[in-house]
Automatic annotation (TrEMBL):
Keyword annotations of the record: Membrane, Transmembrane, Transmembrane helix
Domain NodB homology per the UniProt entry, residue ranges: 68-245
Gene3D superfamilies attached to this UniProt entry: Glycoside hydrolase/deacetylase
Lineage: Bacteria, Pseudomonadati, Bacteroidota, Flavobacteriia, Flavobacteriales
Protein name (record): Polysaccharide deacetylase family protein
Transmembrane segments: 7-24, 30-48
Length: 257
């Protein structure tokens, strides 16, 4: 059972008992607002944290893996900067997973082809990655996933089965959309914040601190700062005997239909 269902059941039972207690003057009326506030905080955490499994199951790390394997993932491409990322990955003979935005694929189809040519894995990151996409209804969000699938398949002949929600946001509509499309939802447990943090050292420290077997690192192939961070990361992984694998290998799942 999803955590959301458990929280809702407990909240309803607690609310009913509290309401009865309020009616018989055993509790003050404002105690119900405390319960509502707690429910809102828990639900808000579930929305913002893809690892919580609050609305849907996501694969954010594989703690069961015994080998020193991790996965590096990139969001928001393809982008001209992606070509520089690919050069660094070639230099270290590393394969990664790229979660691509459909409208970026339309802009740079040749870069998408280059990613697949080098045997990296492509995942779905919606078509528009709109700033308000987490507010979309189920049907509209479903179309976002399907449209991204279509454009990726158009240029690679492969339909991705891996999906990462924009911003890592989840909610009931997104859960219903993913269920309808049949994708595996991929999260992360090492977030770089390379889109906001200006310091290479801070970013590198965030993603290498306490790095363990089965961890999933989130980077963005659209940012120039990521280039220098990536090279330092790959050197760190070499020194510490980690092997970088694609998401499908890390979780033993299918990457494409």
């Amino acid at each position: 059972m999803l955590i959301r269902n458990i929280v809702n059941i407990i909240s309803v039972i607690a609310g009913s008992l509290m309401l009865a207690a309020i009616i018989f003057d055993k509790l003050p009326w404002w105690s119900l607002f405390v319960l509502i506030l707690i429910w809102l905080l828990i639900t808000g955490y579930g929305v913002a944290n893809i690892r919580s499994g609050y609305f849907l199951k996501s694969l954010s790390n594989n703690s069961k893996i015994n080998q020193r394997k991790i996965a590096i993932t990139f969001d928001d491409g393809p982008d001209p900067n992606t070509l520089e990322v690919l050069k660094i990955l070639d230099k270290y003979d590393v394969k990664c997973t790229f979660f691509c935005i459909g409208k970026q694929v339309e802009k740079y189809p040749d870069i998408l082809r280059e990613i697949t040519k080098k045997n990296h894995v492509i995942g779905n990151h919606t078509f528009s990655h709109d700033k308000l996409i987490d507010m979309y209804g189920t049907e509209r969000f479903t179309n976002e996933i399907k449209d991204a699938d279509h454009i990726i398949e158009k240029y690679t002949t492969k339909r991705p089965l891996l999906f990462r929600p924009p911003y890592g946001i989840t909610n009931p509509n997104i859960a219903k959309a993913v269920k309808a499309t049949g994708h595996s939802v991929i999260g992360w447990n090492k977030r770089s914040f390379d889109t906001t943090i200006p310091s290479e050292k801070v970013i590198l420290r965030r993603i290498t601190k306490n790095l363990k077997n089965g961890d999933v690192i989130l980077l963005h192939d659209t940012k120039t700062i990521t280039l220098s961070v990536l090279e330092q990361l790959l050197l760190f992984l070499q020194r510490n005997n980690f092997t970088t694998v694609t998401i499908d290998e890390l979780f033993s799942i299918q990457a494409y239909a």
